[in-house]
Amino acid sequence: MKKTLLLCQDNIGDLVFTSALTSHLSSHGEKITLVTRIDTEAVAPFIPGIQSHHSIPLLDKIDPIFHWKKHVAFWQFIKWLKRQNFDIAITVSKNWRLGLALYLAKIPVTIGWDFPKLAPFLTHATPRPSLKKPAIEAIQSLISHLHYPPQESPHYSLDLDAVQSKKQLMNITKDTNDQWVGLHAFASLKNRCVDLETWLKVAREIKATGFTPVWFGTTSELNTLRDIRGCIGLFSDYLCNGQLDQVIPLLSYCDAYIGHDSGVLHLASAIGIPNLGIFTPGEPKRTFPQGIYQGTIIFRPSPEQLSSTDIMSSFKKHLEPLLN
């Protein structure tokens, strides 16, 4: 059994996509350790097929003069790598500093993308992913060097048993006749977000249709909504503590989900929630939902070109029939 390191220092969505690799590698007997950023570590226990996980600070800068703490963290990471005696290391991140760490740790086989600053530190560099191809297809190419048979119907997923176990520990009461529709009105880039008034109209129409809107987001984001007069629905940070290890099982209470192209959309897809992804514009050809439930997307070149009528029309066509 080979000891394999899988390294993802990217955002939640990228970490979810990485689960397609863990499932495939573990099915071939790989003993996998997953390394994440500290702020995404809570997702790791839900990633299937891993034996252990570890988190480190985001190593985006390691200059010893201006970024001393990250410089120290970088060398501590190398010491940790040497103690683990990994046979193989795969980095799904394009950060060259991670490649340097793998090189200095003298891991025999190191795999990653062929970005100019990263490739020199790797034993195997894979052609970088296309923005026009599904991310799952691209990420699967990283393990082509290991010569395993291709995965049939590749998709990402979370460990549903782990989700269920965590769900049972949550003190949430939901009426058996009540159906929840998760909403996420935010994304990492504000210029990709449909305006909140449009989202409030969506929430009102969902409520009028007989369903309960449940808002997801950080407390800061949700406070923005709560400050708007007339905002209706439940809030994820009231239903749980707002941390990812509770947000994921909370999502499983939802019967459907609508949200921007973000990590929460991919979490919903990864646990099989019927979903509608909003891409304004995003990268719909690359990062559409590719999980257990692949869902539907709406694409517009800009947020201003999407109305609540457009969203509700797609909801009624693709999601509402599943709720009745």
Topology:
Layout: E1 3-7, H1 12-26, E2 31-37, E3 52-56, H2 68-84, E4 88-91, H3 96-104, E5 109-113, E6 124-126, H4 135-140, H5 160-167, E7 180-184, H6 196-208, E8 212-215, H7 219-226, E9 234-235, H8 236-239, H9 244-251, E10 256-260, H10 263-270, E11 275-279, H11 284-287, E12 296-299, H12 308-323
What does this structure look like?
Helix 1 (about 10-25) runs parallel beside helix 10, helix 5 packs across helix 9 and helix 6 (about 195-210) packs parallel to helix 12. Helices cover about 35% and strands about 15% of the residues. The relative contact order is 0.12. The protein is an alpha/beta fold. The protein has a six-stranded parallel sheet with strand order 3-2-1-4-5-6, sandwiched between helices. Strands 9-8-7-10-11-12 form a six-stranded parallel sheet, sandwiched between helices.
